[in-house]
Amino acid sequence: xxxxxxxxxxxxxxxxxxxxxxxxxSPFFAKLFLPLGFSxxxxxxxxxxxxxxxxxxxxxxxxxxxxxxxxxSLVISMLGISASIILTPFIPPYDKIGILSLVFFILVRIMxxxxxxxxYSNGYTFVEEWSSKxxxxxxxxxxxxxxxxxxxxxxxxxxxxxxxxxxxxxxxxWKYLFLLxxxxxxxxxxxRLDTQETPEFKEARKDKYPFKDxxxxxxxxxxxxxxxxxxxxxxxxxxxxxxxxxEESYGKLGEIIYAIAMIFTFPSVILFGKYYTTKLISYWGIxxxxxxxxxxxxxxxxxxxxxxxxxxxxxxTTQAIWGSVPSLVTSAFSTIxxxxxxxxxxxxxxxxxxxxxxxxxxxxxxxxSSGIYLxxxxxxxxxxxxxxxxxxx
Length: 393
Description:
Residues 4-393 form the Major facilitator superfamily (MFS) profile domain. 81% of the residues lie in helices and 0% in strands. It contains 20 helices and no strands. The chain has helices at residues 2-24, 26-33, 41-52, 54-67, 70-87, 94-97, 100-130, 136-165, 175-193, 199-203, 210-215, 218-250, 252-263, 265-275, 278-298, 304-319, 325-330, 338-352, 355-361, 366-392. The longest helix has 33 residues, at 218-250. The radius of gyration is 20 Å and the shape is globular.
């Protein structure tokens, strides 16, 4: 069981590791892969290609998971993630091949999206089916916490690499971040090869048409899609725009503030995963909606101690609830369609949640737009989780 948890922990760690590097270094990647005059937000939006193509990976690899097994599908997805991370540092810059540089960058982001989509369809399912009934919540929360740890790891390594390589960081030093990520991916790949298929999948009858039968769960999937659209606002408010705001105020010191704030989220994710109820999730959405604008307003004053505290509170209020995701979503579907339905729900819901990135990028001050749209995300979580509770009653 421990090996299964560690294998999946690495999957979500790598997803966040990649995302954090793209986010924090977005101004640099804009100069590297885009013509002069394009804003760094163009690179942030390019992450949208990753999220948009996740449903394709989730559905394709989710169907495989329901047909041939969760374990084999996860080995395939990790192999794809490894390849895409390895390819990134070898993309030629714009001044060498022109617009093809951006094209190649986007293609790699699409590749990342497809294979990380497979992580969400089969990863949650794999862990939950191996877990005992009393440990499902905490096992899922542990695996989900890998996302936060990946973000901290990427942030600290960026700081160390910039310090060690100096000016050479932007010439070749940044490439080592992806090469290290590929090493982690290869280790995760070998760990997965040493895991076994879940007994629950082995004993269940096989569904010939898991996608078709997943669609029949329309009402349940529809509610969860709105839930994930709101959850994506919670995730991006901390992982994407909080570090941007902190770096605008403090430069590289902002990255350290963000890393410290992220550390406080780990115990909250584990505790929420262990003790959550659908009602608690609903009330938590209201709490987020109430606190959203005041928190981002306080982050606007450039007071170091205040920003450290506020960033930590933003991290806890937006990330703790993610500890409930693996157990809640997988429990909503039967074994024979669990991977397909889970992947469809999670990845398509995340893609719908891209409204947050586009909305914030099209408005003026990031702090006020982040606060407003986080509040909307909190309300979506409240309304959809309340509806989900009614459906499951």
